[in-house]
Automatic annotation (TrEMBL):
Positions of the Oxidoreductase molybdopterin-binding domain: 5-130
Enzyme class, spelled out: oxidoreductase
Gene3D superfamilies associated with the record: 2.60.40.650, Oxidoreductase, molybdopterin-binding domain
Keyword Cytoplasm among record annotations: no
Domain of life, per lineage: Eukaryota
Source organism of the structure: Gossypium barbadense
Keyword Iron: no
EC number: 1.8.3.1
Domain named Moybdenum cofactor oxidoreductase dimerisation: residues: 154-293
Listed InterPro entries: Ig_E-set (IPR014756), MoCF_OxRdtse_dimer (IPR005066), Mopterin_OxRdtase_euk (IPR008335), OxRdtase_Mopterin-bd_dom (IPR000572), OxRdtase_Mopterin-bd_sf (IPR036374)
MF (Gene Ontology): heme binding; molybdenum ion binding; molybdopterin cofactor binding; sulfite oxidase activity
Name of this protein: Sulfite oxidase
Pfam families the UniProt entry points to: Mo-co_dimer (PF03404), Oxidored_molyb (PF00174)
Keywords: Metal-binding, Molybdenum, Oxidoreductase
Amino acid sequence: MSITRKVKGVGWDVSAIGNAVWGGAKLADILELIGVPKLTSCTQSGGKHIEFVSVDKCEEENGGPYKASIPLSQATNPEADVLLAYEMNGEPLNRDHGYPLRVIVPGVIGARSVKWLDSINIIAEECQGFFMQKDYKMFPPSVDWGNINWNTRKPQMDFPVQSVICSLEDMQSIKPGKVRSLCIHGFIKVRISGYAVSGGGRGIERVDVSIDGGKTWMEATRFQKTGIPYIADGISNDKWAWVLLELTVDIPQSTEIIAKAVDSAANVQPEKVQDIWNLRGILNTSWHRVHVRIGHSNM
């Protein structure tokens, strides 16, 4: 985004994502034990949000603790899979990932999955912490640091649909004399690999790939488990995890490869980063473009 206009944020490149198998207790079960039934949106005392407070202190909170919140309706919904996690990948949670206890809010930006959990509060209004009220909000391109009003936007929760090309693998076995043949025809066979993901538990309906800068499109194969076809929102698929994509195709020696995903709610990635520029520099989900130039020495 800073190529378009300077933003204030962390340079994540195309994105930052991780997948793990989390173990712990469902927050909906814990709340039920203290008298808050499942699928509750408001308690008798007016509580509508669940606030998570960390032992971690931060400068943005003037030395106070990091904190964030989610709606009570989400916290008490077993299908939302909000977890108080104490295990990761079959082992006790380590210190970097939030030992001894952290929150996992799947399908939501990572800023809400509070680490090093100290307390949980039922509150009437959403958390008023810095990272809920003055960060991680999506503003239109017309807003800059001179005219920003943080109160005009809600905190970012679900992350939007995204796809990323991670690798281009040469599928040709180059032998003596083969390079000349490839150069004459001008194409090389490659396997395009990457992932797509959407927030809120929405599946990936399709991933479109172009090898000519967006003039024509092909549909990539989607899967989560090798050899098992992926069906968006299928009961056997993991609605919170990424969906891997793959396409083997002949590409020109010089071209632009593009990927764009569509989720099960028909949300699609925007074409240009300029259309979604924002001063905080978050949620650049524009088409992922990879410029390819294959020279003789690379073959």
